[in-house]
């Protein structure tokens, strides 16, 4: 088994295709749909926002970034709420997210997320946490 420092795109695609085929066989076809809520600056460029997807009854927030110009105004909570509302409309039962940023973790907790997993001192002084929020029917 040879080890490399980079992954060719075609190799990554082949491995992902295998995982997807296996999961679809075991779990049934996925209903995965992307979700994107951009934050637009004065020049019309995306400088933050939320990227995620819904699938198999869950919203996964892959990335959430609030630029400095909008911090401290509740924008993270607004982004999460908008994504959650769409996830509910898509029939999701809850959402999950992970973070190493303690400020982001507190914002997610204010939005109703709770920690269900953690690696303490993932990086010295910083824990990585996995958080979940179940939607009420």
Stretches where pLDDT is under 50 for at least 5 consecutive residues are none
Q: What class, by secondary structure content?
A: alpha+beta
> How far do the termini sit from each other?
49 Å
Order of helices and strands: HEEEHEHEE
Shape: globular
- The helix content, as a percent range, equals 25-40%
Return Rg in Å. Answer: 17 Å
Main beta sheet: 6 strands, mixed
Strand content is: 35-45%
Report the total helices. 3
Q: Strands of the largest sheet, in order across it?
A: 1-2-3-4-6-5
The average pLDDT is 96
Compute the number of strand runs.
6
Features:
6-stranded mixed β-sheet, 137 residues, 31% helix, alpha+beta
Describe this structure as you would to a colleague.
- With 137 residues, the chain is of the alpha+beta class.
- It has helices spanning 9-27, 75-89, 102-110; strands spanning 33-40, 46-55, 58-65, 94-99, 114-123, 126-134.
- Helices cover 31% and strands 37% of the residues.
- The N and C termini lie far apart (49 Å).
- It is built from three helices and six strands.
